[in-house]
Amino acid sequence: MIETRELSKRYGNLTAVDAISFKVEPGQVLGFLGPNGAGKSTTMKMIAGFLAPTSGSASVAGFDVETRPLEARRALGYLPEGAPSYGEMAVREFLDFIASMRGLDGDAGERRIDDAVGRLQLEAVLEQPIDTLSKGFKRRVGLAGAILHDPKVLILDEPTDGLDPNQKQEVRSLINSMARDKTIVISTHLLEEVHAVCTRAIIIAGGRMLADATPSELEARSRYFQAVSLSTANVEQAKAALSRVADVAAIEIDPQDQRITAFPKPGRQIFVAVSDALKAQNVTVRELALEPGRLDEVFRSITQGAGGKGART
Amino acid sequence: MKPTLTIFKRELRSYFATPVAYVFIVIFLLLAGAFSFYLGGFYERGQADLQPFFTFHPWLYLFLVPAVSMRLWAEERKSGTIELLLTLPVTLWQAVLGKFFAAWAFIAIALVLTFPIWLTVNYLGSPDNGVIFASYVGSLLMAGAFLAVGSCLSAATRNQVIAFILTVAICFVLLLAGYPLVLGAIGAIAPQGVVDAVAGLSFLTHFEAIGKGVIDLRDLVYFVLTIVVWLYASTVVIDMKKAA
Ligand SMILES: Nc1ncnc2c1ncn2[C@@H]1O[C@H](COP(=O)(O)OP(=O)(O)O)[C@@H](O)[C@H]1O
Ligand SMILES: [Mg+2]
User: Fold this and answer.
1) Which DSSP symbol is given to A68?
2) Domain ranges of chain A
3) Model-level pTM?
4) Per-residue pLDDT tens over the stretch B8-33
5) Tell me, what's the ipTM?
6) What fold characterizes domain A228-291?
7) Which among B79, B83, B88 has CB closest to A101?
8) Contact A87 B14 (CB under 8 A)
């Protein structure tokens, strides 16, 4: 479990993190979403005990990170931003080092290392100095170090940054496979990642928490949520038919492909009404679709609306 | 204690993972030899002892030890590994000690490798090996004190060059604290009590005392305390950076 209470960090007169409070339970994968400079890494560094909060507090597995730092760190696996590791060490040496620092020696340590190596497919590079590895491998070495002691709580700062699409997919399924009994927080600026792994998303910008919801709840805030789009040869006629549907609030026509989108009035569903109206007017459509919410649009409107440019006091 | 040992091993091994360690050792040995034979008049003195050899250690250390210590924390901060290290279950003291002892052991290895010069004096004459042993101990203790100063300054910055220069400067003052150059300057602005206190802090005075062949408890305590104080300062500096 992770809990923060009014967690804040100020650098001079820049408030990098502004009174963030949340609680994550085992089984949840929380996505920390926000533009660059939003304060994601700073928040994670404070929870990991690397930075001291200016005010507020954080606890990991019930241990306050400032007053019970060792217990908190034992329960935590942390991947810092950029996945730093000792470049001159071979992968195996590095993992041995982490295991030993975590008190995992002998057979228990070996088993944990083998498990992490297998999960991140590092077998081929075990004897290679980390400096000579590709960016993707370096990140996987960092991840292996973070999950080595099978921690109850995982904090991963941009775990898929710098990976190619296949590797991204592998890391996401790794996170999913560990999600059941762990408390996991990842940061990302990739919206597709939220769908792929997160059960919950917190959006921050300018150090402030702007939303805390499930991915589908966020999508429901989209203007496109429950909108109906269609393409037809008969644009004018279709438009006329749609404008007669009572619950349609607005109609937009894409200037590029002439695709028509009808937006519902708040809380209304218009799919059936729209398709009936089109039929009644004998408008033939090539295709008719119910729009899901668009996360990127929600993200943009939330982060740009509320002081997304960093909060100076 | 366990994490200290783990960090110690990792650090010591990392010294030898790059050619830097070997270059350092070779330079140390060459300079130590050159100083004793050319500047110290090792042969010309016609005495079987290692005094010319040890006399130059403080000056060798003044530049070589900061070159070792500048990496200690600055490198971790620059590469970001400090974030990895300090979020493992380890206390600041354990981390500072592990790194310090590894650097100290590295210097000790370089020092031990000067043994041919000891063999040489024993071949040429019959020196007082007790004095030589004491001098080696004194030399190692002084190197430890230099390193502890360097550890603190390396923790204060991510720039290794700055760490190096500051360490050299502070060690220079500490070396000469017992000499007119420093004492005169302090005497001009402070009462005699302060001057005496500063004189007592001099690396050189204590090193030379040990070099006479008697390992006095006071000299030992002096170096150990100096090391502890500067290592404590290292933990304070690192802790302060957390809150920065
Ligand atoms: N050590 C520091 N000193 C001063 N400002 C910092 C420091 N670290 C981060 N910041 C600032 O704090 C804000 C949040 O940074 P960060 O947490 O790294 O954002 P994110 O991870 O969301 O991209 C940024 O404006 C950044 O410039
Ligand atoms: Mg970041």
Assistant:
1) S
2) 2-220, 228-291
3) 0.89
4) 999 999 999 888 889 999 998 988 88
5) 0.89
6) Alpha-Beta Plaits (3.30.70)
7) B88
8) no
